[in-house]
Design brief:
19 helices, CellSynth/LPSAsmb/PSIAsmb, globular, Serine Threonine Protein Phosphatase 5, Tetratricopeptide repeat, Tetratricopeptide repeat protein, about 325 residues, mainly alpha, TPR_rpt, about 75% helix, repeat
């Protein structure tokens, strides 16, 4: 027995204790990220960063996970730190920063970093993505192009129209939109808001024809596809509705307001499963000012059996937007 004990002791003496290093934590974090277990991934990556605080690879990977969960500011802090500490050796950070700023709606910053990336890495891993991002920014800004001296006036119009449209007060929105179109003829968004207000005021045929004319001029117009999908669905013209909703199912814009428009359109036309995934991708802090976010996210959650989530969203929406409490709840 003593001999057996000695042998056991010797074996114990030969055991090498496992002390995980940064690479172990990093690998575990990447595995969790690939499984879309983002909270677990962040925990592992934090351990990796604690082990090697100055490893730029760990910090870049951490920033990518932050981007996935919508923590764009936290991601940008890490990426900026990497660029400062490595003297621009990690040029990919420029593209990652551009992508994050685009999601935040800060398009000038997004353009600046995307351009910096292409200057430093004309044949880099993200070259095509950076070029596509710049194209998207240019398209997005066409809708916001106006003379600087009329910016204040336009802003007042926009805020007032936005309020009426969100509250379905189409009769109040129409005269303002007509005035906006006269004063700012090159501005596209009021024209699409006008057709929607026109449609829901009872002038359906005129609204559809106007939107078809605009789509003919701009075949890639996101807002035309949104409005026509809603119009044809409301009229139960499913053959005409399908191509427009199919287009929207394949579009993932960078601007948060455009993402919300697609999510609400999918919800309004009973694509609840697809709408739910789009709502979950939104950065809530950027669109909580939209009554439609709470209305249609709640309706979507309810139809998918997420009753408690639907109730919580509706109640939160009523606190932020008292007019929502005047509407019928989806479960009534």
């Amino acid at each position: 027995m003593q001999h057996m004990k000695d042998k056991t002791d010797n074996n114990q003496d030969n055991v090498i204790p496992f002390i995980p290093d940064g690479d172990f934590y990093f690998t575990k974090g990447v595995e969790a990220f690939q499984r879309r277990k983002f909270e677990i991934a962040i925990k592992w990556l934090k351990k990796a960063v604690d082990t090697k605080p100055n490893d730029p690879l760990y910090q870049c990977q951490m920033s990518i996970i932050y981007t996935e969960v919508g923590a764009f500011h936290a991601a940008n802090q890490l990426l900026t730190k990497v660029l400062q500490s490595t003297g621009d050796q990690y040029a990919d950070c420029y593209y990652l920063l551009a992508n994050n700023y685009a999601h935040l709606g800060l398009l000038n910053d997004a353009r600046k970093y995307a351009t910096s990336y292409l200057d430093k890495e004309p044949d880099g891993d993200f070259t095509e993505e950076a070029k596509s991002l710049l194209n998207l920014i240019d398209i997005d800004e066409e809708d916001y192009d106006f003379e600087l001296e009329s910016e204040d006036e336009l802003l007042i119009f926009q805020e007032t129209v936005f309020y009426h449209m969100e509250n379905k007060e189409y009769d109040k929105a129409l005269p303002l939109l007509e005035e906006m179109i006269t004063i700012f003829p090159d501005h596209q968004l009021p024209k699409h808001d006008y057709t929607q207000a026109l449609f829901f005021s009872g002038n359906e045929e005129e609204a559809i024809q106007m939107e078809l004319d605009m789509l003919n001029e701009q075949p890639d117009s996101l807002y035309s596809h949104i409005n026509l999908a809603i119009f044809y669905y409301e009229r139960n013209q499913m053959q005409e509705y399908v191509p427009h909703i199919q287009t929207l199912l394949n579009v993932y814009p960078i601007h948060e307001q455009q993402k919300l428009k697609i999510a609400t359109t999918l919800a309004r036309t009973e694509y609840y499963k697809e709408a739910y995934s789009r709502f979950r991708m939104l950065v809530k802090g950027l669109i909580s000012g939209h009554l439609s976010y709470y209305r249609w996210y709640s309706i979507t959650a309810f139809h998918l059996g997420e009753t408690s989530k639907a109730l919580a969203l509706w109640e939160e929406g009523c606190k932020k937007h008292p007019n929502l409490s005047k509407e019928d709840r989806p479960w009534q």
